[in-house]
Queue: 2 jobs
Job 1
Amino acid sequence: VKFSVRELVYIGIFGALWGAVEMTLGAYLSVLQVPMRGTLLTSIGLLIVLVGRLFVPRPGSVLMMGIVTAIVKLMSIGGFLLNPMIAIVAESALAEAGLLLIGRPRRIGFVLAGALAVGWDFFHMFFTQGLLAGKGIYEIYLWTIRDASRILGIPTSYAIAGVLSMLLLRLALGAFVGFLAWDVAKTVLIRLAPGTIEPTTSAPVEQ
Amino acid sequence: MVKLLKRWDLPAGCRAAVLVASIVLAVLTSGAAGLLVLAAVVAYALGSGDGGLVVIRKWQLWLFLAVLLLLSPFAIGQRDTMLWGIPFSNEGLWAGLYMSIRALTIAVAVTGFANTISVEGITRLFDRAGLAGLGFATGVAFNMLPTLSLESQSTFETMRLRGGFRRQRLARLKMLAVIVLTNALRHADDIVCAAEARAFGND
């Protein structure tokens, strides 16, 4: 897919916005050690790039915005960069896949893309730790679940159900983000439409 | 030695090739060979610049390695060895050690790459790979990043100081997103005009 100059600029802008969220809010949440901060950052980032899809309605645009964000993150100072970079690219690829499944931009496509992308957050830790340490890490996880269930006296199926509920929570949140992104995108389109009154920031104030 | 290595001004393509080679070798090797790869990656990171080994200051990495080392002897393989009355697996102990070496190698390789490559280097890398559009978009993103960060923060602060988030929080957050995105897209129009005036084309 070949993008026009305007589309490339939009891709850069939306990538920079997600990058700005990752670098400012992400750093803030990281310092405060807020739980589920990855899910929160993904949700905000997804909202931005899904709005971007309405401005660059071409296959691959969301993935490109994700790659630009990952590079912005790569250049940020400090932190262990591998995890967030993989997360950003994987989430944008999944969002892209969701949008491509539905075809032309529609609310249902945004909902599916959001659910898939935020749902990745659940698998992300297992994936990156498997990538870093190899398949042996999964044996450690299984052993931990088995032994924790035994010590706490909870059936293993309950422990697995608890873990799966975390996945469902993320899928629901992602779907909501997609739903919201459609509304935000439409509102931005209306605001930017020709003939819309520009904000009068320099207008004289009546005394 | 380190000073000599610091003079290396490798092009971005070489740095990317070293990164890929390091990750592939870390995944494919184990045992003493894995340790050799780790030593080579650490030497390269030391020689590449000051930021090459920044990851070893991160406690999260050491916590992850500690978990691998401490749990593997109990989770992997048969518990066939005793130490101070605690049974553990010899196979698991070695597996944990190899996993830690592999994780440390990949972490140092990625962070070393990230901390020693410039934005221009990455843009050039994309251009050479035939992805000039992605390079241009990345350049736009880096140029706009400070402005967009500042504007987003000041919009948020303005809304907060006016008590915007006290009621109807979701609606206000939606409004914040609309304002930030609309402002960003207005900047985009200026950049498009500037790029077109300079006859920039994705050809």
Note: The mean pLDDT of chain B is 80.
Job 2
Amino acid sequence: MTEHSEGTLRRDERLASALAELPIAEHADDFWIGLDERLLDDRRARRAAQQASDDEASGRAAGPPMAVIPSGATRPPGARTPGAATRSRRPYTQDPGSIVLELARHATDITPRRRGPVYPRRRARLGLAVAVFATAVLAVVAVALLFGREPDEEEAAAEAASAAVADIAEAMAAPISLSGGLTLTEFTAQTGVPEPVGRAYTFVWRVDGSYRYTLADGTFDEAYDAQLGTRRKVQIAPGFGSVVEDQVNVPPGPPDGVAPALPIANAMLTVFRAVLADPSAATVAEEARDGQPVLVVDTPLLTVGTDPQPDRARLAVDPDSKLPIAVSFLIGGQPWEDVRVDNLAVDAPLGAENFVIPVPGSASVSPIDAGFRRVASPAEATAAVGYAASVPAYLPAGFKLAEVAVAGQAQSPGATNDDGTQAPAQAAEGLIHLSYRRGFEQMVVTTRRGVTPVSDRWTDPFGTTPGVEGRAIELDSGRFDGVTVASIQTPPAMPHLWGRTDELVFTVSGILPADELTRIANSLD
Amino acid sequence: VAGSDSAVPEVGPAVMARAVRGDDHAFATVINHYDHILRSFTCQLVGDNDRMDEVLSEAYVRAYRLLPAYRAETRPSTWLLRIVYGAGVRALGPDGDTEAAATGHGGGSPDPPDDPAQHPPEGDRTGQLALWLDEALAQLPSERRAAVLLVDGVGADAASAADVLGISVDELADWLAGARPDLRAVIAAGGGGRRP
């Protein structure tokens, strides 16, 4: 604390007395009525959305029952049972008239508080308020008698967290590009040095997942072009030379690789993943940061292994645009790392040239070819691999096709045995990846032909974790109608489902609830 | 809150808990409880009555939506002031200026007398001082104005005020130290009936 702060932080009583003499404006006559209308509109909109969700849930409930494979399979921590999902959608308000009642009562109770000549106001129109009051009393009594109930606070908080993440995801679906500054700061808990270590980058990002971010001093540069499937990373050590890492035909996404992404994208997706796994543990609050309002989603993180790692993340977004401002990671309450966005610009035109990093003159480049060649469309993928690409007819709101890639062959990890040993890798041919994006989020549909060993011996192409079992779901429509798939939502795995036929192994993955992934799988043609 | 020296009277925890659980009567009680303080803060922060209503309407709707996320560890006044301050900053825009500052005086109040020797009658001095203080507040950068209004106006303790503003307590001290001299000068000069 600075020298002056101890006394400065106390209330200045003389100033306080003077401020107390300042006039305090009353609300305009129609303030409470207008506020009441806004609150009721807000409630109606939420109830309509909830009704739509409930209708959808009812439709699912009427479908074939879900089996569990194998017996004793666990439900992911925090995942809701169908019954819990229904309860969590229950509105947390009690009845349609009570806001009107209380605010109308307040309107009738208004007493003049003005002192002095400033802020002239009209008098309240008490007649209207009283009429509303009387109507509301009847509504309150009737509704309270019929529907008195006590929603669960935890479920309401979970609902708020899920809704906030859904709002952010929806907002992120709108921009076709983002650009600005990106500051990564590592703190003592991570670095072991007393002062935070910050690095400032500029970045560009395009809706198909292409990006580039460049360190201010030019010693680091990384770019990914989703259309070409190329990724280049250049690091320059002044006085020593340059290191260039080049990858071509990069897999668009899992299970054959992790999609390259900006640090802010990875940070946001970490928060999304945590909230999906356990929304009841997350909180949402409006706060101020450096004097500016922000909406903060605060969530614990699942830690895996014994290495120190952050156990909590706080995603701050602009309360209006819902676009990201920063993600802060903490460990034991201490700051671990901050990823902050500055001077964010939306929808700046970006061409292919924005994602090209020139190779430093003296550097040699030996690209690593991962084998996933980009093609223009699912039809072109069909022609390339010799079987029809499976295109989903249903996509969650905001997702759009971003990348299509084919690979002649690839290997997936074999199962992990109980003793920790690994089964042999599983070879496949004729792979198709369809990558869909919504902002930083990604949903990937893959198909592949299994080769020896034959497909009925396949295990999860994402790999397996001892003790983590999938939930068996029988698909009831689409190309894979009747196929029983395994749905895995248990962290830290990427949420996904996978299934197999005599010919194909298919996957659907993304940070989405199991029912959404299932709905996508049911719509594959 | 234990150890707090906040002068803000808080609504009872049971009422707040009922509001969080979805009891609209309790929510209205909470709003009614704090409305006077929030009007006092917002009115001086944005410097305009209509904008005050816009800000508070926006803030109350946001509070209603965010109720499920409220946590009992946070003082209700701090939680609400944080939401109101956020709405106020958005209403003020990137420059953070009040209409009063832009036009040179606050809230439609009359200009102070230009003649420094003009002394209003004793009975008018309090009102005149209020007008000058109002004008001086409007000339402050919005974040410093908010700091003074929170600590000296509302009576929030330093930790709560810093929380509302999203800054450290040290920064709050700097903001207060930067804002108060002009206001004290107004009080010192205006108390004698002179225009500062």
Note: Chain B touches chain A through 80 residues (CB under 8 Å).
